[in-house]
Design a protein that fits this description.
Layout: H1 4-9, H2 12-21, H3 24-30, H4 42-49, E1 53-59, E2 65-71, E3 77-81, E4 84-90, H5 97-104, E5 107-114, E6 119-130, H6 136-142, E7 151-165, H7 176-206, H8 211-221
Antiparallel strand pairs: 1-2, 1-5, 3-4, 4-7, 5-6, 6-7
Length: 225
């Protein structure tokens, strides 16, 4: 099986379900060809590096899955190689579920979302916790000096496979910063119009026109009927 993600994810029971539901033939074609989807390319690296959050799933020693959110400034997920990524693990609610889980089972799944562009990338890998005292050079590579959060450890993830998902059913969403960037030209245009209107009103006052005339002519200059 050439596609690494399919090799891991398409177990016999999964393939049987695909056969029952009519998608097996299409995925069988995906599995052919040279090995792929086991090393991050430029597209994947750029996508991951631009994210400000992701979801990570792990499995406990009792077999229960756990999904947790990780966030930070854009770029907090470091691309350390075509098969290695990492991030500084900030102090949160101190449950340490993921840390405990990967101590027994290092297999993890990561989900990266780009809501504005309706794109998503899922990644399978093997995770390990990094002790800051034992591996200062690794922690230096993950450091975020300007981000005000307490770093408890690093997490390194060796990439096993990845797959892009289709955009179906992804509702576009924007962060506050993304909305601010989008409306910035409108704010600039509004400020320019307000300044232009104020300058026109000042000229009319200097000409000795009344307030009613000033208001009427100012509105007309701004394009009002």
């Amino acid at each position: 099986m050439a596609d690494r993600f399919a090799e891991i994810a398409f177990t016999p029971l999964v393939r049987a379900a695909q056969e029952r539901h009519g998608s097996r033939a299409a995925y069988a074609r995906l599995e052919g060809g040279p090995p792929n989807h086991d090393r991050l390319g430029e597209r994947e690296a750029a996508f991951i590096a631009a994210r400000d959050s992701f979801y990570i799933a792990s499995v406990s020693e009792t077999g229960w899955p756990q999904l947790q959110h990780r966030g930070g400034p854009p770029g907090f997920i470091r691309i350390l190689g075509e098969r290695l990524i990492g991030f500084a693990d900030f102090r949160g609610n101190r449950q340490y579920v993921t840390v405990g889980n990967i101590a027994a089972n290092d297999r993890v799944a990561l989900f990266f979302m780009d809501y504005p562009n309706r794109a998503r990338l899922k990644l399978l890998g093997r995770a390990r916790a990094v002790d800051p005292a034992a591996e200062p050079r690794t922690m230096a590579a993950l450091a975020l000096p300007d981000y005000p959060a307490r770093v408890e450890r690093g997490i390194l993830i060796a990439v096993e496979a990845f797959a892009w998902n289709c955009s179906q059913h992804i509702t576009p969403r924007w962060t506050e910063a993304e909305v601010a960037r989008a409306v910035a030209p409108l704010r600039e245009r509004l400020a320019a119009l307000e300044a232009e209107n104020a300058a026109l009103a000042a000229r009319l006052r200097a000409a000795g026109l009344g307030d009613d005339r000033i208001e009427r002519d100012g509105l007309r200059a701004a394009g009002a009927p």
